[in-house]
């Protein structure tokens, strides 16, 4: 599961890390990226450009925009779902990020942020599509793929977003076999990640700013462990 994520780097850092030529829309760092927002992606069609797409996949065959956006897609069943089968084969994307959030439910919601050990940039595996509104307006949208949780995640949730190793970015965006692509959709190594508790302000989708990623004191215990 991935319902919020952060991308706090500046545009120059993102361009250098992903070897991009630049963006085609104004970029703003996000400390609390949420569904339905316009967020940066790098697509298989324009692999050198940072573009802003709506988070919540709208299949091009949809008759209307769903009130329950498809923000995540299970990697294990991509080829079984009509919403995802074609886009998995033809329209894949990288979703740049430097962290994501998940919540411990223990009387109330305690948010935790998950990052790489060095808090550097990374990319989720994503799929995207383009939907035409009845008015003729075109909406580009995306979903983040999920897989089984690794050890860093499993006490909080049994699913996690697919984080790709950097050496596999071109493979994910390229014209490769289904089996080769599916081999990338696995839990990211737990030893390369860390988690820490962040302010409960992040619970609000309207909250933004660097104060959201400040580390807080951990909970005393959750499932018998200091958390």
In short:
The chain is mainly beta and 227 residues long.
Question: Which terms would index this structure?
Answer:
227 residues; globular; hypothetical protein yedk fold; 14 strands; 5-stranded mixed barrel; mainly beta
Please, could you describe this protein's structure?
By secondary structure, the protein is mostly beta strands. The protein has a single domain (5-213), classed as SOS response associated peptidase-like (hypothetical protein yedk fold). Helix content is 11%, strand content 35%. The chain is built from 4 helices and 14 strands. It has helices at residues 11-18, 85-90, 169-173, 178-182; strands at residues 5-7, 22-23, 30-33, 38-43, 49-55, 72-74, 92-97, 99-106, 108-116, 122-132, 138-148, 159-161, 163-164, 193-197. The strands form 2 sheets. A 5-stranded antiparallel β-sheet has the order 3-1-8-9-14, with no helix packed on it. Strands 4-5-11-10-7 form a 5-stranded mixed beta barrel. The relative contact order is 0.19. The mean pLDDT is 91.
Q: Mind sketching the topology for me?
A:
Elements: E1 5-7, H1 11-18, E2 22-23, E3 30-33, E4 38-43, E5 49-55, E6 72-74, H2 85-90, E7 92-97, E8 99-106, E9 108-116, E10 122-132, E11 138-148, E12 159-161, E13 163-164, H3 169-173, H4 178-182, E14 193-197
Parallel strand pairs: 2-5, 5-11, 6-11
Antiparallel strand pairs: 1-3, 1-8, 4-5, 4-7, 7-10, 8-9, 9-14, 10-11, 10-13, 11-12
């Amino acid at each position: 599961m991935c319902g919020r994520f952060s991308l706090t780097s500046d545009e120059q850092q993102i361009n250098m890390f992903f070897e991009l030529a630049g963006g085609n829309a104004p970029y703003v760092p996000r400390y609390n990226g949420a569904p339905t927002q316009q967020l940066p992606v790098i697509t298989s069609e324009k692999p050198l450009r940072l573009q802003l797409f709506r988070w919540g996949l709208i299949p091009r065959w949809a008759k209307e925009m769903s009130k329950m956006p498809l923000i995540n897609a299970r990697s294990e069943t991509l080829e079984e779902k009509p919403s995802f089968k074609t886009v998995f084969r033809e329209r894949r994307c990288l979703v740049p990020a430097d962290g994501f959030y998940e919540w411990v439910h223990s009387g109330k919601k305690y948010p935790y942020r998950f990052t790489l050990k060095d808090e550097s940039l990374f990319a989720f595996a994503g799929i995207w599509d383009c939907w035409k509104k009845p008015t003729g307006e075109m909406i580009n949208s995306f979903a983040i793929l999920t897989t089984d949780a690794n050890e860093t995640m499993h006490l909080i949730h049994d699913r996690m977003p697919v984080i790709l190793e950097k050496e596999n970015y071109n493979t994910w965006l390229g014209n490769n076999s289904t089996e080769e692509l599916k081999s990338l959709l696995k839990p990211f190594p737990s030893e390369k990640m860390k988690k820490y508790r962040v302010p409960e302000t992040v619970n609000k989708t309207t909250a933004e700013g660097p104060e959201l990623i400040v580390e807080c004191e951990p909970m005393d215990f959750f499932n018998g462990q200091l958390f």
